[in-house]
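Dear all,

This email documents one entry for the complex benchmark we are building for the journal club exercise. For each entry we list the sequence lines for every component of the assembly. Then comes the predicted three-dimensional structure of the complex as a C-alpha cell string, followed by one or two observations. Please use this as the template for your own entries, and keep the labels exactly as they appear.
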Amino acid sequence: MAFFDKIKNLFNNNNNDKVSSEESSQKQKKLEKSLEKTKTSLFNKITKTVVGKSKIDDNDLDDIEEILITSDIGVETSLKIIDRLEKRVEKDKYINSDELTDILKKEIEELLVVSKDTTLEVDSVENVPYVIMVVGVNGVGKTTTIGKLAHKFKKAGLKVVLGAADTFRAAAVDQLVIWSERVGVDIVKQAMGSDPASVAFDTIQSAMSKNADVVIIDTAGRLHNKINLMNELSKIKNVMNKVVTNAPHDVLLVLDASTGQNAIEQAKQFSSVTQVNSLALTKLDGTAKGGVVIGISDQLQIPVRYIGVGEGMEDLQMFNKEDFVNTLFNN
Amino acid sequence: MFENLSEKLDKAFKVLKGQGSISEINVAQTMKEIRKALISADVDYKTAKEFTATVKEKALGQQVLTTLKPGELLTKIMKDELAELMGSSSSELNLNSKPAIILVAGLQGSGKTTFCGKLAYFLKNNNKKSPLLVACDVYRPAAIDQISVLAEQVSAEVYKEIENKDPISISSNAVKYAKKNNHDVVIIDTAGRLAVDEAMMTEITNIKSSINPDEILFVVDSMTGQDAVNTAKAFNHRLDFNGVVLTKLDGDTRGGAALTIRSVVDKPIKFIGTSEKMEGLDIFHPDRMASRILGMGDVISLVERAQQQFDEQEARKIQKKIAKNTFGFDDFLKQIQQIKKMGNIKDLAGMIPGVGKAIKDVDIDDDAFKGIESIIYSMTPYERSNPNVLNGSRKKRIALGSGTNVQEINQLIKQFSQMGKMMKMMQGGGASKMMEMMKGNNLPRF
C-alpha cells in the first residue's frame, strides 16, 4: 500500500485498529479548542447579521467581507467568495442564516479542493526511504513540526531518521538533536557551518543503510526573496535526488498561521525552486486564523496536509478541510 | 511586484474626469482602491478604513481632483499621512538606570533571540555599553545554547542558569549579577508565548513586576497579517510595552502590521531587523516604511530588483568587457534599459555605488535617457563597439539622425568614457565587487 495511505489511515478516525475513538474525540476537541477563537468571530457575526432578514443586502455583504478579510483570506480571494455568494443569492431570492452559512462553508471548501492526489507512490524498491524535505521562512516552526512528525511516524511503527541540515542558525542542530532524543529517533548531523546538501546526502545514505522508512530533512529558515538562499535549497534538493531517484518525495512548506498575504509569495517562490507539494500550517492555537491558505490552495493548488496546534510532540493534526470549515461554522 | 499605486490612481482619476462631474460615489470607489491596497499590504481592516477616511478628507481639502496629476498628489498625501502616523514619538531607549533593564517579549518565532544579540552588539558599538544577555527561555529546546552562541558572536556575556526552570528568579538573579559585575545594560530574552496563553502571559507579567524593566520591547514579525491587531492589544494590555521591534524586513512583505500596531496601541517602532546577521539592526524610518506599505518601492526593493536584473552572467560579461576596454555603447544601452526596467530612476541614481556616481552627471530622468538612446541608436554597430572612431563627420551624421547636436554627442562620449574609467577603477574587485555590494552586504538598510 502506498506509504502515505498507510499513514493517513493511521490518523483517520476510521482506522479502529490504531486509533481509539477516545483519541479521535480528544483530537477533535483540541482542534475545536484551537479554532474556537475563529469560530466565535466568524459564525456568530454572520448569524447576528442575517437573522430576521430574508435576503442579503449590501451591508451584510460588507460584514461578510470584513469577516473574510480579518481572517487573512485576502482581498482577491474574499472578493471571489463574495462574488460567488452574490450569484447564488440572486438565484435563490430568500435565504435564511443557515442556508447562507452553508453556502459560505461550501464556497470556502471548494477553494480548498486540490486536483492532485495526496496519495504518493513510493519507489517499489525495498531499500528506499520516504524522504521529506521541510522548508520555510525564518521562525515558522519547521524544527518543531519535524519533531511532531517524527513522533507520529514512530508511533505508527515506522523507522525515522532526521537530518539536521540547518547548519546556519545558532544551536539549530542542538535543537533538533533534543527533539530526536525526546521522540527516540536517529539523527544525522555535522558541524555548524557545514554544507547542508552534504548533511542531506549523509542522512539519506545512513537511512538506507539502516533500512529506515522515513527521512525528514530540516533546513534553515530563509526568506524567499534571497536568491542565493533559494539556490542553496535547489542544490540540497538536487543532491537528494542523486541518492534516491524521486527524493525528496515530499517538500513540506511550513507556514505560520499569523502570516499575512506574504504567505502567498512565500508559497510561490518556494514552489519555484523546490516544487512544494504540501503545507503545514502552524501556531493555530493562537488567535490567528490562517485564512491565507485558502488563497494558496485556490491559486497554487497546494494542499494543507498538517496543522500545528501547540509546542508539544502531540500537537500535530492532519488537515481535513470539511472539519476545518465545519468547526469554524458549527454550533 | 512593484505596484505603482500612483499610476493606478491616475488611471482611476482619468475615468473620473472623463465623466462630466465627479460625484461622491466616484471618489468612494477610488478610496476603495486605496483601502484594498492597504489591506493587501496587511494593514488591518479597521485601520485601513479609518486611514482612508482621513486621507479622503485631506484630499478633498487640498482639492486633489482639480490638479493635473491627482493620483500623484493623492499618493503623496497618503505617504505623508502614513509616515506621520508611524513617526512622531521618540524611538530612543531609556538607558539611564544602572543597569538599564530591557525586557524582550513576543510570539514564537518572531525573532526575539536574534534581536537580543543584535541589540547587545548595537549598544556595545554605538553606545559603548557593557550589556549582559540573559537566557530566560526555559522551554524551547536549545534556547539557552542559541543565545549563548550569539553572545559569543558579539563578544557579550550571557547569564544563564541551566537547571533553573523559573524565569522570574533567573531574571532577578541576572540583574543582581549585572550590578556586581559592572554591566550597565541587561537584555532579557524570554520564551515566545501566545497572547491567549494565560499561564505564559501571567509569567511575563510576573517577570515584569519582579525586575521593573526600564524598557519593554515587543518583537513582531513584519509579515504578520490581520492578527497583529489582536496580539498587539493583548501584549500591550498585559505589559504596557514601551516600543516595538519589527523583524525580518529584509523580506518582501509590505509590512502593514507596522501601521496596524501603531494605530491600535500607539506605541513607537524603535528598531527594525534587516538580516540574520548581528549587524542587521536599524533605526525605524517612518517615511521609508510608508513607501513600502504603499508598494511605492523603497531602497531595498529597488536593490532587490537590481540584483535580479543584473544577474551573475551579465555582470561577468560586463566585467570582461571593461577589462578588455571593449565596453561599448551597445553595452551602455543595455545598462540603460535594465535601469529603466526598474522603474523610478531618480531614486536609483546615486544608490548603486560607482555606477550611480557616473550616471549622476547624466541627467537622470526618462527624457534625458531618450536623448542618449536616440544618439546611440543613430550610431552604427561598429561605432557602438568602437567609440574611439567617432570623428567629426560621424558625429555630424549621428547628430542629424538623432535630432541632437554635436555638442550633446561630445558630452555623451565624455561622460561615457568617465564611466568607463570609473568602472575600470573598480576592477580590483571590479564589477563583481559592485555586484557583491549590491547583494546587500554593504548597502544601507532602512
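Observations: Residues 18-22, 298-310, 346-364, 428-446 of chain B have pLDDT under 50 and may be disordered. Residues 100-287 of chain B form a domain with the Rossmann fold fold (CATH 3.40.50.300).
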